[in-house]
Write a structure and sequence with these properties.
Layout: H1 2-14, E1 42-44, H2 47-50, E2 78-81, E3 90-93, E4 101-107, E5 110-113, H3 115-118, E6 127-134, E7 143-149, E8 160-167, E9 173-177, H4 179-182, E10 190-196, E11 205-210, H5 221-229, E12 238-243, E13 246-249, E14 264-270, E15 279-284, E16 291-295, E17 301-303, H6 305-308, E18 312-313, E19 319-322, E20 331-334, H7 342-347, H8 354-362, E21 368-369, E22 373-377, E23 383-385, H9 387-390, E24 398-404, E25 413-418, E26 420-422, H10 427-439, H11 446-455, E27 458-459, E28 461-462, E29 464-468, E30 474-476, E31 486-487, E32 489-495, E33 504-509, E34 515-519, H12 521-524, E35 528-535, E36 547-552, E37 555-560, E38 575-580, E39 587-591, E40 596-601, E41 608-612, E42 618-619, E43 630-633, H13 648-651, E44 666-669, E45 678-681, E46 690-694, E47 700-703, H14 706-710, E48 716-722, E49 731-736, E50 752-756, E51 762-764, E52 775-782, E53 791-798, E54 810-814, E55 820-822, H15 824-827, E56 836-843, E57 852-861, E58 863-868, E59 871-874, H16 876-879, E60 885-887, E61 890-894, E62 903-907, E63 923-928, E64 937-944, ...
Helix pairs in contact: 1-10
């Protein structure tokens, strides 16, 4: 009966909830072991060479297996440090079911097993997990703390603290187990312990990361709230304060969440906000949220994750907190389980349930997605997640993350351990297990469970290593650096084991000897290094928490002394800087936790330098804020955009991006002739638009407009002021669109022209426009007919419920009295079915004095129509060296280089996405009613490792087209299906097709020779989709700068939320070139989906979807 209950818990979590359990996977990850390269950076040393023979052997049995204990394969850790103070780092391994092992470093990569002599093997019949080395008692010798866990009695889970008694004449250190004496003999289910001085009183405190060994319960709002209120000292995280050598549990008093909803797998300590106090990042498995605990300097922590981080990994595992981009601020990487290759993505369970996702958000568990997350510290208290852009998001079932400069080029690289012996989230197995349980009428016996375990597919993955390119871009160097060896690896650590100036790697494997990789950088390159040993004052003898900044050749590097990192492991406390080929260091600054500071000028390179706190004479001041260029001020316009409680993917599950969330649109003009700009704010669905009149002093008051109220059922998507009837007053055109619950020919789509009486009073012109029952998304004004009167181009955005069919677009010709006629067929027939238009602008692109038209849209090229003899002709191919087909969102036409010609800035999807596209490997969208059931089936596909695969999962495919269930009866049959396998050539030939080959937000400079030339924007412009662009001159240097805003919060679940844009400021050089202004310096902290921006004097007015308007003022102009 007990086993039956176990299975009844496991199976619904796999199938019914659509969420994974724990952390596992299958197949290859694309970095195939094709033989060792000729001169790899790392050389794997055999156990016979090193005498390190440790192997974390797991023996599956009736009582011990992954279906009885889900963390069965989570593995053990590695700790490295000089235990006998001979100048060589020693190595300690923890084994789940086998004795721990301690190896004394004898030099020249030779080691001696001294486990028995040192008495540190750990207890038999217990489950050992994380290990860390720290000088716990402050006597100058490293001690060892070992964590225990498992589905065992509490007394078998008692953690151990081995106090170093010093080395004998033979150089072998001995230890005594004294956890009880120090108050650290926790009997909880522990993952890892981290020692650091959280209260800055001069001694080391301890954070203990625990995890609940039981399956995550089915959650609801009321039950979850009750669970979170209850402290669970066995399973929840704990914080122990060091009170003079005895540790006291102060978890609840310190403000840490420590309930049964704890599945902690990673903990990183660093001063993330630059105030001099150590903060704590905790990564949790399952949908339990991660925590970003900011030190409150009063003996506790405050979780600020929701305020500082937009989204996190779903099944967060190991982590690292380190400065990877050399801006002296610690960044955060958390690991998850998204495979790199298509096959494993299609075979393994992944969260795809919107209801459960929404429940997690309501529970306060933040937005979580199944992939690695790289959180870049912007220096202003916020983090921008760019793991996909950096190339680090997909590393399969990953455990340990370690940032370190392995090639000594001055940039921290990344090592990730990977693998699981059995893929128990393989969806074919999950279904098989479900069927098996249902068919066992006599109940499930332990032998049945073990039989199922043996039927779980197995796979060996390789670990990963990524070379840091120095530009937030990482290159997969696994094969080139010699690490492409199949394994199931967990804990890992780095250290210069042979003292040759480069970092070696030690990896704890399941059912395989541990890896010892010797780094050969010292012989393969001319790169230099500097190693630092920190000696703290008082009980913190290692100077844990010290902050070191190295200055060399205009470059800065920053490290913090915090050895416990990665996964269940601790690295060498000897800090390491790679210098590249620079042969000198300008200076090295060391700031100790006490605030004492010392600076070494021109320290000698290629050495181990010891720095001591007692020699520090200076004092460092933390928290000195740089002046922001912009500051947020109360919005002069009080307007809240309508809240939309809708999900576009319920209507069309295979949409690429949501369509409904397009507002608010903004437009400005002096509507009442008082010399001040007034502002129109477009209303959202079932919300009236509003007109705000500017007053002297810069305030705005809303002017009641009955005509707007009468059209509240519509959704304004774009608007423009212009003099439609030639009376000298700015009239107003409002484009109406939307998706949500609109029908394809919905009457609410009719665009509106409102006439101005000269005093700012607007009335609807009933017969001004032809019937236009199209969801429009863009409008622009221009004299396209050449008669001197303003005409209109109106772009169709979408056909609701039938994406991506082409909506109708319009060329409306003005009779001069404010009445418009649809002349598309006569003057520009290509415009009618142009595509999914998102924006448009008029300009004289060729200098002939005629008004031309530029149009952008989703799955469209940047399109140029020139005005020839009163007709608009598509001349895109003439103006661009290729068709830049993208998911374009926004268009700005402006002379950026002062040559009098219009240039273009176009907002696109960016590069921080699973979807990639280029000329050779385009992203495509085939669409038609493939199964003849009356609905459109849009199939997104893009290339993964050189093959074009449909992005849709088997479940999504069968839900969309039920007939596909017979074609692909299981997940394995679909796992390798390419786009050409999915549909026949005949089916694809009759389908609609859209393509994209360019997803970057772009700048195109008008060269004056009939060509627009691409000018790359800074990488920060590719962090997130861009929907709002404006020029400004914030520094008054006469050169145009740019503001870019964007994001997508309601994205497709598997693609996730795009939120890495907080408002980007780009400084222009007057020649069409731009550089990014650091976020902290710029001062923008805009959260949410920016959809519009207006420049009003010395302010920017920003329209954020479903939020109040925001305003930022240029400080220099106050």
């Amino acid at each position: 009966m007990l086993l039956h209950k176990v299975f009844c818990r496991i199976i619904p979590l796999f199938i019914g909830l659509g969420f994974l359990q724990s952390c596992q996977k299958e197949g290859t990850n694309g970095e195939k072991n094709e033989g060792t390269p000729e001169n790899p950076l790392f050389a794997l040393l055999a156990p016979e060479q090193t005498s390190i023979t440790f192997e974390n052997t797991l023996t599956e049995s009736l009582n011990g297996n992954v279906l009885m204990y889900e963390y069965f394969y989570n593995g053990g850790g590695v700790a490295v440090g000089d235990l006998n103070n001979d100048g060589l780092d020693d190595v300690y391994f923890s084994g789940n079911m086998v004795p721990n092992r301690l190896y004394l470093n004898k030099g020249m990569m030779k080691f001696e097993d001294i486990t028995a002599k040192a008495a540190v093997a750990g207890r038999d019949s217990s489950w050992k997990t994380g290990v860390t080395m720290a000088d716990v008692n402050g006597d100058g010798k490293l001690d060892i703390y070992v964590c225990y866990s498992g589905n065992l009695l509490p007394e078998k889970r008692r953690n151990e603290l081995y106090i170093n008694q010093g080395a004998g004449a033979d150089g072998i250190p001995t230890f005594t187990e004294e956890a009880e004496k120090y108050g650290l003999a926790s009997q909880g289910t522990s993952t890892q312990a981290t020692f650091f001085d959280y209260d800055k009183d001069g001694d080391l405190d301890m954070f203990l990361l625990n995890h609940n060994p039981k399956s995550l319960p089915i959650l609801n709002e009321l039950g979850t709230a009750e669970l979170l209120k209850k402290d669970d000292p066995m399973n929840g995280m704990r914080l122990y304060r060091n009170d003079g050598g005895t540790f006291k549990d102060i978890t609840r008093a310190a403000g840490l969440q420590s309930s049964a909803l704890s599945y902690g797998l990673g903990a990183g300590v660093a001063d993330v906000n630059g105030d001099g106090w150590p903060d704590l990042y905790v990564s949790n498995d399952y949908q339990v949220p991660d925590y970003l605990y900011i030190n409150n300097k009063k003996g506790g922590f405050t979780d600020q994750l929701k305020n500082r981080i937009g989204h996190t990994s779903h099944f967060s595992m190991g982590s690292d907190v380190a400065d990877l981009n050399n801006d002296t601020r610690p960044d955060i990487l958390t690991l998850d389980m998204l495979p790199e290759d298509n096959r494993r993505q299609k075979l393994l369970v992944a969260p795809d349930n919107y209801q459960k996702f929404d429940l997690n958000v309501r529970l306060g568990f933040n937005h979580q997605y199944m992939r690695n997350m790289l959180q870049i510290n912007d220096g202003d208290g916020n983090f921008q997640e760019i793991g996909q852009l950096a190339g680090l998001s997909n590393t399969d079932w990953s455990w340990s993350a370690l940032f370190a400069d392995f090639d000594n080029d001055g940039w921290k690289d990344l090592h990730i351990t990977n693998g699981l012996p059995r893929d128990f989230t393989n969806m074919d197995f999950v279904k098989h297990m479900s069927d098996y349980v249902q068919n066992q009428q006599q109940g499930i016996q332990r032998a049945d469970v073990l039989k199922l375990v043996y039927e779980i597919p197995s796979s060996n993955l390789t670990n990963y290593v990524f070379e840091n390119g120095g530009d937030l871009q990482f290159r997969n160097a696994t094969q080139a650096w010699g690490l492409a060896r199949p394994s199931n690896s967990n804990g890992a650590a780095y250290a210069d084991l042979d003292n040759d100036g480069d970092l070696d790697l030690i990896v704890n494997n399941v059912n395989q000897p541990a890896f010892v990789y010797q780094n050969q950088s010292n012989t393969l390159s001319k790169n230099h290094y500097l190693k630092i040993k920190t000696q703290g004052k008082g009980a913190n003898t290692q100077g844990i928490g010290a902050q070191l900044t190295l200055y060399s050749g205009g470059q800065e590097q920053y490290v913090e002394q915090m050895p416990t990192r990665g996964y269940q492991s601790s690295v060498s406390p000897i800090l390491h800087f790679g210098l590249g080929e620079k042969n000198n260091v300008d200076s090295l600054r060391v700031v100790w936790p006490s605030g004492k500071m010392q600076t070494m000028i021109n320290p000698k390179i290629d050495q181990l330098l010891t720095v001591s706190e007692i020699e520090a004479k200076g004092t460092f001041r933390w928290g000195e804020k740089a002046e922001n260029l912009f500051m947020e001020v109360p919005s002069p316009i009080a307007h809240q955009d309508a809240t939309l409680d809708i999900n576009d993917f319920y209507r069309q599950p295979l949409l690429v991006n949501p369509v409904s969330f397009s507002g608010p649109c903004l437009a400005k003009a002096d509507v009442n002739g008082d010399g001040l700009d007034d502002v129109f704010v477009g209303g959202g669905k079932d919300q009236a638009s509003a007109l705000f009149l500017q007053q002297k002093g810069g305030n705005f008051i809303e002017k009641g407009t009955p005509a707007f109220a009468a059209d509240a059922a519509s959704q304004a998507t774009d608007a423009v002021f212009f003099d439609a009837n030639g009376d000298g007053f700015p009239d107003l055109y409002v484009a109406n669109g939307g998706y949500a619950d609109f029908e394809p020919k919905d009457a609410r789509f009719q665009d509106k022209l409102y006439l101005n009486d000269g005093k700012g009073t607007y009335t609807l012109s009933l017969k001004a426009l032809p019937t236009m029952l199209t969801s429009t998304g863009a409008v622009c004004v221009g004299d396209f007919s050449g008669d001197g009167k303003p005409d209109l181009f109106v772009g169709g955005r979408v056909v609701p419920g039938r994406y991506p069919e082409t909506p109708e677009s319009y060329l409306l010709v003005n009779d001069g009295k404010g009445t418009f006629t649809n002349r598309t067929a006569a003057l520009a027939p290509a415009l009618a079915t142009l595509g999914l238009v998102t924006d448009a602008a008029s300009a004289d692109v060729n200098g002939d004095g005629k008004t031309d038209l530029i149009v952008v849209g989703e799955w469209m090229p940047v399109t140029v129509f020139t005005n020839e003899n009163g007709k608009l002709t598509d001349k895109t191919k003439a103006y661009f060296d290729k068709a830049y087909q993208g998911w374009w969102n926004q268009l700005l036409v402006e002379d950026l280089n002062g040559d009098g010609r219009p240039d273009l800035v176009v907002g696109n999807q960016g590069l921080n996405s699973q979807v990639r596209a280029n000329d050779q490997e385009v992203a495509s969208l085939y669409y038609k009613d493939f199964d003849n059931n009356g609905t459109i089936d849009p199939i997104l596909s893009f290339y993964i490792q050189g093959k074009n695969y449909p992005y849709v999962t088997r479940d999504e495919l069968v839900m969309q087209m039920s007939s596909m269930g017979a074609r692909y009866p299981d997940y394995k049959s679909y796992a390798d299906v390419t786009l050409n396998d999915l549909f026949s050539a005949q089916e694809l030939e009759s389908a609609g097709k859209r393509e994209a080959n360019y997803l970057k937000t772009a700048c195109f400079i008008n060269a004056g020779n009939g060509k627009f030339q691409l000018k790359e924007l800074p990488l920060e412009a590719q962090f997130s989709p861009i929907f709002a662009i404006t020029t400004l001159d914030y520094d008054q240097d006469g050169k145009k700068d740019l503001f870019l805003g964007g994001n997508i919060s309601q994205g497709r679940l598997r693609l996730g939320k795009f939120d890495a844009n907080y408002g980007l400021l780009l400084k222009g050089n007057g020649q069409g070139g731009f550089v990014s202004v650091p976020q902290k310096q710029a001062g923008f902290t805009i959260r949410g989906d920016v959809r519009s921006v207006l420049s009003l004097g010395n302010q920017l007015l920003v329209g954020v979807n479903q939020q109040p308007l925001k305003a930022y003022r240029i400080k220099a102009r106050q």
